[in-house]
């Protein structure tokens, strides 16, 4: 008996998950100078406040990264 394969090509869609039960979008900021990071929060104002405190305590730290955790979902198109 010879092995046989069946291939089926399908179209999938990928998009941010905006369903009512989706995980929340989370925000954080990270200092690019020393790697310290703010706590994550659903409210961007909290990481932003952390940046202002951090640069106030470290006047030479001027560069930061925004870290966003956003839930995504996929589904097969029929």
From TrEMBL:
Domain DUF7848 residue range list: 1-77
Pfam families according to UniProt: DUF7848
Protein name: DUF7848 domain-containing protein
């Amino acid at each position: 008996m010879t092995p046989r394969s069946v291939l089926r090509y399908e179209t999938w869609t990928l998009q941010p998950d905006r369903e009512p039960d989706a995980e929340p979008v989370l925000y954080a900021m990270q200092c690019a100078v020393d790697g310290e990071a703010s706590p994550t929060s659903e409210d961007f104002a909290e990481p932003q406040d952390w940046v202002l405190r951090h640069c106030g305590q470290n006047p030479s730290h001027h560069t930061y990264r925004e870290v966003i955790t956003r839930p995504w979902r996929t589904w097969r198109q029929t």
